[in-house]
From TrEMBL:
This is DNA-directed RNA polymerase specialized sigma24 family protein. Belongs to the sigma-70 factor family. ECF subfamily. Residues 25-77 form the RNA polymerase sigma factor 70 region 4 type domain. SUPFAM superfamilies: Sigma3 and sigma4 domains of RNA polymerase sigma factors (SSF88659). It comes from the Bacteria. Gene3D superfamilies: Winged helix-like DNA-binding domain superfamily/Winged helix DNA-binding domain. One of its GO terms (molecular function) is sigma factor activity. Keywords: DNA-directed RNA polymerase, Sigma factor, Transcription, Transcription regulation. GO terms for cellular component: DNA-directed RNA polymerase complex. Pfam families: Sigma70_r4_2.
Length: 107
């Protein structure tokens, strides 16, 4: 079976407002806002699919403390993500804001 890159692009969902990119930026910023230990525990659990015993070995934590830290990390990530303001994008600006941006600073 041959996969054509063009066919994938044709079937890819459109994101004219850049919402996917905005959500990605907010998620990255929220992850960066977490303390290092919570970030590491969350990364190994969610991105790498590591079990708590492996996370404990990688981080030097007691195995029984990993599940509680995961709950704390997920809660902290959710809170950090929720408190971030929506990034300003070209698509989110109204026409008046766009016009003033295009004209540059007032002299």
């Amino acid at each position: 079976m041959k996969v054509s890159g063009q066919g994938l692009v044709d079937r890819a969902p459109r994101d004219p407002e850049g919402e996917v990119a905005n959500q990605h930026e907010r998620l990255v910023s929220a992850m960066e806002a977490l303390p290092e230990l919570l970030r590491r525990v969350l990364w190994h659990a969610e991105a790498m699919g590591e079990p708590p015993s492996r996370i404990a070995a990688l981080t030097g934590l007691a195995p029984q403390s990993v599940p509680a830290l995961l709950v704390r990390a997920r809660t902290s990530l959710r809170e950090a993500h929720a408190t971030m303001s929506e990034p300003v994008t070209w698509a989110s600006m109204n026409s008046q804001d766009r016009a003033s941006h295009e004209q540059g600073p007032a002299r």
